[in-house]
Amino acid sequence: MDMLSKELKAIHVPDMKITPVEGEIDIDIIPPNVSVSSPQTFSDNILQWSQTQVRQWLLQHKLVQLSQLLIDCNGRSLVHLYKFMKQSQSSQILSILQEDSLRRINQSISLIELSCFHSIMHEQQRQQRQQTKISIKSTEINRNIEEVDF
Question: Per the CB 3.0–4.6 Å rule, which of 121, 123, 128, 132 could disulfide with 82?
């Protein structure tokens, strides 16, 4: 340090003690007007979700900003939004959601939260399709059993 201090023509720099930095604590920041209830299960059919269920599902997935932005959306609206996001250009979606977000909740939309939403919706729809296939297969098996004469 002394050599560096002389090179920089600085006044004496006291020896510094190095203290290790502990890991960061993961804290969820939730606005005071947002209540987070305990995790609950939802119907497999998103189309049947109410506005309250959509909000709780978004909060359960830590999508606080979207829960505020989409407060008036039910399950059907959520599915339409997801389809619109998939079929439109990313820049167009981001621009429209940014305008809505600023107008409705006075915040810029979080691209990270939006990406998480897209990913979670994709997984939700994948699970729903898988559930539908299982249900169809079960129905076919039941029909075949009924057709067999014992």
Answer: 121
